[in-house]
Amino acid sequence: MNNSPAMLQLLDRFRAGRVACLGDLMLDRYVYGEVDRVSAEAPIPIIRAERNDAMLGGVGNVARNVAAAGGQAHLLAVRGEDGAGREVTEQIAAMPCVAADLVPCPDRSTTLKTRYIAAGQQLLRADRETTTPIDGAAADALLSHLDAALAQTDVLVLSDYGKGVLSDQMLAEAIARARAAKVPIIADPKRRDLTAYSGVDFLKPNRAELAAATGLPCGDDEQIALAAHTVMDHCEIGAMLVSRSEQGMSLIPRDGAPVHLPVRAPEVFDVSGAGDTVVAIFALALAAGAAPELGARLANLAAAVVVGKVGTAAVSSDELAAAVLSDDLTRSEDKVVSAAMAQADAERWRAGGLRIGFTNGCFDLLHPGHISLLNEAKSHCDRLIVAINDDASVRRLEKGEGRPVQAEAARALVLASLAMVDRVLIFADDTPIPLLRQLRPDVLIKGGDYDIAGVVGGDIVQAYGGEVKLARFLDGHSSTAVISRMDAGEAGSRRGN
Q1: Within 10 A of 364 (CB to CB), how many other CB atoms are there?
Q2: What are the beta bridge partners of residue 252?
Q3: What is the phi/psi pair of residue 113, to 5°?
Q4: For 14-40, what is the mean pLDDT?
Q5: Within 10 A of 157 (CB to CB), how many other CB atoms are there?
Q6: How far is residue 207's CA from residue 192's CA, in Å, rounded to a whole number?
Q7: CA–CA dist 363, 477 (Å, integer)
Q8: Helices assigned H by DSSP within 380-450
Q9: Residue 101 near residue 143, CB atoms below 8 Å
Q10: pLDDT digits over 121-176, tens only?
């Protein structure tokens, strides 16, 4: 299924999405440098520091990703009265589309993670933090801010990094208040006992966290689904969104079939904050009115973008749009298959009760007549296979000098990019008869310039019980006619000069 149009429309609606983000705030500092020697004091590398970067981490990174993608974030957290606390406050103040209620806690350190990086590799991380649960006054102040935020938000994210903000009591209060306000809740957990998140609509553990919480293996799709249902059977949780590193992501609802999404990252540089990005984009998609599956697909693409960056990074709406289009092209290439692969697909689809359609042609220069044919062909079936003549057979069909204009690979990729086309294959024979015998489509569709008796291979399809359909023919549209007009225009231009 081609979700690209729906995803792009969803991105346009992000600006109206409002996400409240409650949890552990931290500052991620990165020290970049070079290593060219080992210390004489101990067998450790010496990094020559060259520059420092700092950015919001934890729940701050969730809010930053919501804002970067075009939504409106409301950040609810505590901060220490220290240098890191002042720095996070300054960074938040400089961010458009992020409102914040930060409760000052003089007796706490603002969580600071300092990473030392050389040649793209992380050498060391040093943490400074306070992990004791926040005290009564700070908790009361934070809940008061939460009540105000829930009155003007679409989704609540609970970002738990185990730093003391989301204590058992705070979790229970936040979940109860959001449910009373009828605001959907997404929780990113960091504890083994997942019953503490009972009442949330979506829980987003990673694969390791799910395995640790259940004691079950989580190596493949079936195991992930079983472990997720084990959690949901013991907790009041609506669905599980499980990030699976190199295996992609899985959305497992309490009721209904799970959706397993393959990984889309071409190259991984840094996974820091990738979970925050997934939660932020998924939450923003729900806030913008998307179905959970579409939100999960977009969040999966966002994760692929962010792990290709170094540091705790955010993904912009432009980067998401580019990822959607790039993913569409990748899937288009995946649709171009061999005859044997198309046969296997057809058998699998047919076993699932789907109706298989087939059409063929040169499809040299795609024009409105082709689009009309393909749209009508798809209306007669659940899955449409399009076979195109290879370059040699186009020339044998005497299509004219210089044909085909586009090589077979280009013609196949253009067809595969169309939503109504499910598979494209290239054939070398002058007729599709061998393919029809191999694929045995339920319906063969040809343009209306034929009659049913004259459709090549129609008798073969009808002999095993299939149908032959004629699509409407649009007068004036053909690749030959288009090329003739181009040639005439070029000749006229030369005469004019």
Answers
A1: 24
A2: 240
A3: -110, 120
A4: 95
A5: 30
A6: 12
A7: 12
A8: 391-396, 408-416, 433-439
A9: no
A10: 889 999 999 999 998 899 999 999 999 999 999 999 999 999 999 999 999 999 99
CATH 3.40.50.620 maps onto the chain at 336-486
C-alpha to C-alpha distance for 277 and 312, rounded to whole angstroms = 9
- Please choose, from the candidates 184, 403, 212, the residue with its C-alpha nearest in 3D space to the C-alpha of residue 286: 184
Q: Residue for token digits 């229970």?
A: 172
Q: In the chain, pLDDT over 90 holds for what percent of residues?
A: 63
Report the SS3 class of residue 159.
strand
Calculate what percentage of the chain has a pLDDT beyond 70.
88
Tokens (6 digits) for 10: 């969803």
Q: Which CATH topology does 4-333 take?
A: UDP-N-acetylmuramoyl-L-alanine:D-glutamate ligase (3.40.1190)
Q: How far apart are CA 185 and CA 169, in angstroms?
A: 16
What is the H or E stretch that residue 64 is in?
helix 59-68
Active site residue 276: yes
Give yes or no for a contact between 26 and 350, defined as CB atoms under 8 angstroms apart: no
**DSSP 3-state assignment of 145?**
helix
Q: Which two tokens stand for residue 138?
A: 């700070």
Pairing of strands 98-105, 18-23: unpaired
pLDDT in tens, 217-249: 999 999 999 999 999 999 999 999 999 877 789
Q: Whole-angstrom Cα distance, residue 158 to residue 186? A: 6
In the chain, ranges of CATH 3.40.1190.20 domains = 4-333
Contacts of the segment 339-345: beta carbons below 8 A, 24+ positions apart? 339/425, 339/427, 339/435, 339/438, 339/439, 341/423, 341/425, 342/385, 342/423, 342/425, 342/439, 343/438, 343/439, 345/383, 345/385, 345/422, 345/423
Determine contact, residues 213/192, Cβ cutoff 8 Å: yes
Identify the active-site residue in 276, 327, 364, 390: 276
* Residue 411 in tokens: 């013609």
Q: Are 276 and 302 in contact (CB under 8 A)?
A: no
- Angle, helices 4-13/292-306, rounded to nearest 10 degrees: 90
Please state at what angle helix 4-13 crosses helix 317-335, rounded to 10 degrees. 170
Tokens of 390: 């290879």
Q: What is the pTM of this model?
A: 0.69
- pLDDT of 273 > 70? The answer is no
Q: Are 259 and 282 in contact (CB under 8 A)?
A: no
Phi, psi at 406, each rounded to 5° = -105, 140
CA distance between the termini of the chain: 50
In single-letter form, the type of residue at position 374 comes to L
CA distances 294 to 47, 84, 283, 298, 300, Å, are 44, 37, 11, 6, 10
> What would the CATH number be for the domain defined by 336-486?
3.40.50.620
Total count of residues recorded for the chain: 497
